[in-house]
Design a protein that fits this description.
mainly alpha; 5 helices
Amino acid sequence: MSRTTASQLSSASRREKPSLSSRRFRDAISIAEKQGLLGGARTLTVRGRMPSLLVEQAKKKTGIQSDSKLIEAALANIVAADDNADWLLAQRGTVSRDLDLEF
């Protein structure tokens, strides 16, 4: 089986200027690919019942038409998620209130 790369997400997204969200998903797939997460045999089947409107809108937003590729992009997006916001919030209260921040 061939591996999916960020540039292979969909022919429609290659023809049109990609939106910020579709670039984000391509970037997520690229990160997952670089981490070696997309290699190997496709042996696991993931299923679930989804609201059709949710799937329709996700396909429209990403440009992905395949259900399998859509799930792959969603999982890659979770794996590639940036945890900086959580770290920043965890830093709250770690700087002394007595610290002079004026120049």
